[in-house]
Amino acid sequence: MEAIATVSLFLTGDEKDAILTSPDPVVKRFQQALRQRVTSRLAVPGLQAETISLGRATLGWWYPCAEYLSDAAMQYALEPTPELAAWLRSTTLTIARRPIGDWVGPWFRSHAEPLTGHLETAHVCWGVAAVLDLAGDVFTEAEQTEVRAMLYDKGVVLCRRWLQRNSHLANWRGILASGALVASAALGHDDLLEEFTPEVARMALAFQPDGSYGESLQYGNYLANALMLAYESLVRKHPVLAAQLDVSAYGRGMGWMAQSMLYRKPMAGWNDEPRARAVNFNDSAALFRPSGDLLLHVAVRYDDAVQAGLARWLFQEYYEPFPTQGPHDLATFGMRNDWGFLTLPLLMNSAPVRSPEAAGLPLTASFSNGNTFIRDNWAATSVLGIQGGANDGIYAPGHLQGDLNSFMLAYNRERLLVDPGHSCYRNLIHGLESASQTHNTCTFLVEQDSLGLQEDLAKIKLLEQRNVLPRRLIYPDGSVGPAVERGGRLRHCQRVGDVSWVVSEVAHAYGAPIQEFTRCWLQAGSHVTFVIDRIRASEPIRTVWNWLLNNRDGQSVARTIGNELVFSRHQSGLRLRQIGPAALAGPVYAYVHDAYHPEPAQLGEGLPGSGLLFRHTDTEASTTITRLHVLIADDVAELDEWEITQADQLLTVARPTLRIQLTGSFAETISLQVWSQGKPVSITEGESGFVVNESL
């Protein structure tokens, strides 16, 4: 079969020639990986997913549809074979001839008449569009006419119907709009492109002003990847339309993505290859890396050299070492991200690599969505990730958890204090894994009734944060309503030397009777973090401090000694002591998930006890609570060397070669001084906020 000389949407003739003749070893590795990925699938008819569990397929055909079809289509465009043509023809015709109800999605999507599209519909549009564009000659003329008609009737029409019925700004809208636009581009319908391009362009407003995303890392990537597909379907043939789409909306968020990444290392149950870990607030997977095609798209299309270089660095760091790492059957859905069919053409023209150090990213940084990060260095011996208040509001509310004033702590490439993540949305535990009581934040007991057994605390109703917000509306004139208030404010974020000071207040996320919940993080160096809580209520409450520890492989050890929690995980350890009267108890066997899956009991879903939940609980109710916690992270062999001593207002945390001292008061206004490496830093609270500077 003759090779295709020119294709218009996803691959130009020049790009094809450059890929096939490139001497670049990176290009060659990814070309071989694409060939291997596609060839291995030819042995399996249709869209059988890779992941098999309990002797059955764990995915419906919708989920791998976009990546399997687009991969095969790109491979065909580069190196066509009769076997590949036959697979593409058979698989695509089977999809096109499915009943329209199948294009709607699985059983948990609405199938009410008249039918509307859902996420799965858009993914089918992407996959079929890629085949028409890159491998259209595998069909007879009559078959191509049939596929084109079905793509419009079962794809574009259903996506449009969803867009017309819904008037809120959310990632769903971006996915459906992208599905309709990419399909319209493949069909060559200019009138449809004029209709859907403004819908896609509006989705730039879903990102925070600095390019971060209010829902989560995972959902921000999912939306950006959809917008990337829309842009790439236009830019080679319809550059004027592509210019209406704002790459900078998400492109300027590469610094946020780089700050969110932790490290790569093997994870139990996922083979021996190093896998990316990320700071996974809200509904985000801990096994996260930004989509490869999205990173290269930013590296090619965004004119900001720093952000483009960071995108290229992220691709180099998290994709180049293992081009064949799978599984690949949930990639476009953003559940287990991977590189895809656009990697090769985009790889040819991307910006030079720029590491976080070369880009000048700060070691302490906060973002519009409330995410704040403290690192001791970019080698990431210690990373503190904080979910603080969002001062700009949330531009795309949804998929939130009750995690304000929660935080995660990783030390020496081990996640110690963790976020639970999320599993299947149809699991009964999803409400619990989203609740404040399973995060490293506070909950409150308002009623004065005495408790029964200690384990009854897990059964009673606690005062927790609300985590379901109103939608951000699109008005009839096309304008978009204001960002949605979540109920918190990041009041301060500053670094002086190796001392970082972060303050967040989130009382409105709880409502009455909570009037103030200010949490302050003071980190000094790589090992010591002080957490100060200041809580006020209009009626007496009992405060519960929740601590979720990582035990996802069952290899962690935790014990309590009075008010102190001692935790070890492999070769890293944590000591956590509350300076105050609350009683420490636990563990409650909680959940820590690796990654989301649309079906229950799949790889990535944590078992009971994968999280160890400990709680400090006040014994008396009060309207005013101030409390200090001391956290020490170190190698397990060094953990017992640390001593915590208190004399008057001087608190000393020391081991033989290192001493951190804290003095001052925080009962009402905060006035502190901390010595780290012999250098004093003062922190003073005034009417206008906090002043942090080196003391003379």
TrEMBL record:
Pfam family, one: Hepar_II_III_C
A GO molecular function held by the record: lyase activity
SUPFAM superfamilies xref list: Chondroitin AC/alginate lyase (SSF48230)
InterPro entries per the UniProt record, alphabetical: Chondroitin_lyas (IPR008929), Hepar_II_III_C (IPR012480)
Localization: Cell envelope
Domain Heparinase II/III-like C-terminal: 393-559
GO cellular component, one term: cell envelope
Protein name according to UniProt: Heparinase II/III-like C-terminal domain-containing protein
